[in-house]
Specification:
Elements lengths: L1 H17 L2 E3 H11 L4 E4 L6 H9 L3 E4 L3 H15 L3 E5 L3 H16 L3 E7 L2 H5 L10 H5 L5 E4 L6 H13 L5 E7 H5 L1 E3 H7 L14 H12 L4 E5 L1 H6 L2 H11 L3 E3 L19 H7 L2 E5 L22 E6 L13 E4 L2 H10 L10 H22 L8 H14 L4 E5 L2 H9 L8 E2 L10 H12 L3 E6 H4 L6 H6 L4 E7 L29 H5 L4 E5 L2 H14 L3 E6 L24
Parallel strand pairs: 2-3, 2-4, 4-5, 5-7, 6-7, 9-10, 9-11, 11-12, 12-13, 14-15, 14-16, 16-17, 17-19, 18-19
Antiparallel strand pairs: 1-8
Length: 582
């Protein structure tokens, strides 16, 4: 009887042995591939080390950074450039916390990004039993992103990632957190059932069509304008509705003002561009159409001296988020929908009889722009040694004009503020900078992702202080042999390198760095090309050589320590003591 029982059970044993199994590691990878996610930015470590190895083995590009915050910034800007969520992968607790700044940055700037972190097991975290890197990461992430999810069972990995993707890109894009406890990766299930559990996200960011009434109202207001202005924000650049936006601007003849990451939607040299007449058009316009731009601090909240208060301006605003309307002042013509659909609807209402912007207004804007450009020109051609900001930026301005397809990454205080006005852009999504928060440290993460996602050469122009936040990633640039040229405007400190310790002690002033630092030597340690440039001509030769060669290069551009101003152009935000110095 025993023999008979063994024989009866033998087929079951054979079936179990032949059963195809999968696990959490492979289900996450398969879910990525099913949804066209082919790049991961992150830092390996417990509990996600093997996941990175397996993803790489399955053909996903995995870029390992030296710090999670920089990997997060890379993922955030990847989302902006591709309209797909950039993926940042971190370890638990401290690694997760390092990635949170980038996640909040992505949400604030409306960049689609998913931060995925390994985490401790729920049963230990909930009882606070002291697990390795124990932390309730989901609770911490929730206030800083659009959505946050945790997956506890392998069968839910497909739906968890699908929800994260849709949340990141639908409506107003932003950051999403996905929590994957360590035990999830090792969970095993039937491979056939695993494949069935995966979800391919269909139409993750559906068009949101504006109402005809809203479109008509906006057109009526625009048609009534005597001094109209269009402001293009980075939301307009993200939309990739470039042809429609250009058609709207050119058919109406209205001057346009691009915010920094919208530069290049139309060339900054376009006859209708009012970038060099910003103060005039903000103050004197009577109807302002905002396309993917918010009336936040970057536009003085739509009021105050910058807008010529007291004023009776009327605002039209195109945005996908209804709550954005009336956030600071009354919006008389809100148009809610995705930018591509909204601009297309406006174009349908602009026929051959549409009145172009009044000639006296467009002429006044052109005159002011030409005056300001002519006033600036001699400053950009100076050959001062040591260099000042304008002399150095004048050189880079020409290089960018000659290489309009290169990606220009920019951060710093004076380095950012002055470059914004000096460096013209000619194509969309070629200028990447600090965004809404003005956060420092985006430079190397942005540069890496821009190179990886576009395949284009990158010119990153950094203040010496800003570079310090992400400078170790030059090793990452060298390791992956990316065509990135980093130019550091080195003036020995934050804002200026000439401050002194007011207390007279031996310590340097809080804003002063090591004098005569040679940042170019850093990249040489990793096999890259380092150049010390002390004149505009040396800077020009070094940048052109780097861009031609495609080799990782770092140029230490020596700037006069006295050049620059406190906090760049936003010194008014820096409180001063009313008591003065003692």
């Amino acid at each position: 009887m025993a023999d008979a029982a063994v024989k009866a059970n033998a087929p079951d044993v054979a079936d179990a042995a032949a059963q195809e199994l999968t696990d959490g590691f492979h289900l996450v990878i398969d879910a990525f591939k099913l949804n066209g996610i082919n790049t991961i930015y992150g830092v390996p470590g417990i509990p996600i080390t093997d996941f990175g190895r397996m993803a790489q083995a399955e053909g996903i590009r995995v870029l390992s950074f030296r710090h999670e915050q920089n990997a997060g910034y890379a993922a955030a800007i990847a989302g902006f450039l591709t309209k797909k969520p950039g993926i940042c992968l971190t370890v638990s607790a401290p690694g997760f916390l390092n990635g949170l700044t980038a996640l909040a940055h992505a949400t604030t700037n409306c960049f689609p990004m998913i931060l995925i972190s390994g985490s401790s097991e729920r049963e230990i975290v909930d009882l606070q039993q002291g697990d390795y890197e124990e932390m309730d990461q989901l609770a911490i992430a929730k206030p800083l992103c659009k959505a946050a999810y945790r997956v506890l069972h392998a069968a839910d990995i497909g739906i968890g990632l699908a929800r994260a993707i849709r949340a990141a890109v639908s409506g107003r894009p932003g950051g999403v957190y996905l929590d994957l406890p360590a035990k999830l990766f090792g969970q095993v299930m039937d491979a056939k059932e695993g494949r069935k559990s995966l979800v391919k996200v269909i139409d993750p960011a559906p068009a949101q069509i504006p109402s005809p009434e809203a479109v008509k109202r906006a057109l009526d207001v625009l048609k009534s304008a005597k001094r109209p202005l269009i402001i293009l924000g980075k939301g307009a650049a993200y939309a990739q509705a470039d042809d429609a936006i250009r058609a709207l601007v050119e058919k109406t003849g209205i001057p346009f003002l691009p915010m920094s990451m919208a530069k290049g939607l139309l060339p900054d040299t376009h006859p209708q561009c009012a970038g060099a007449a910003r103060s005039t058009v903000l103050k004197d316009s009577d109807v302002v159409m905002l396309i993917g731009a918010r009336l936040n601090w970057l536009l003085s909240h739509g009021k105050g001296k910058a807008w010529g208060e007291p004023h009776s301006k009327m605002f039209i605003q195109i945005d996908i988020e209804p709550k954005e309307m009336d956030s600071n002042i009354e919006i008389v013509a809100p148009v809610v929908g995705d930018i591509g659909s909204c601009v297309a609807a406006l174009l349908q209402g602009i026929d051959a009889k549409w009145p172009t912007a009044p000639a006296d207004w467009t002429s006044a804007v052109s005159k002011k722009r030409e005056e300001n450009v002519a006033k600036m020109a001699p400053r950009l051609m100076n050959n001062n040694v040591p260099m000042d900001y304008h002399g150095a930026l004048g050189v880079l301005r020409t290089i960018v004009k000659e290489r309009p397809d290169a990606i220009f990454v920019n951060e710093g205080a004076n380095t950012l503020d002055l470059a914004r006005g000096v460096i013209d852009m000619y194509r969309p999504r070629k200028r990447l900078d600090v965004g809404t928060w003005g956060v420092m440290g985006i430079g190397m993460g942005y540069a890496i992702a821009a190179s990886v996602e576009t395949g284009k050469p990158v010119l990153a122009v950094e203040g010496d202080s800003a570079f310090g936040f992400s400078g170790m990633e030059i090793e990452t640039i060298c390791r992956y042999k990316l065509p990135v040229c980093v130019v550091i405007f080195n003036n020995d400190g934050i804002y200026r390198g000439t401050d002194v310790n007011a207390g007279g002690g031996p310590d340097p002033a809080t804003t002063v760095f090591v004098k005569g630092s040679r940042y170019d030597k850093m990249i040489e340690a990793f096999g890259g090309v380092g150049v010390n440039a002390t004149t505009p001509d040396e800077l020009k030769r070094a940048v052109n050589a780097a861009m031609d060669s495609g080799k990782p290069t770092l140029i230490n551009a020596v700037i006069d320590p006295a050049a620059g101003s406190e906090s760049g152009r936003i010194g008014n935000l820096n409180p001063k003591s009313v008591l003065g110095k003692k």
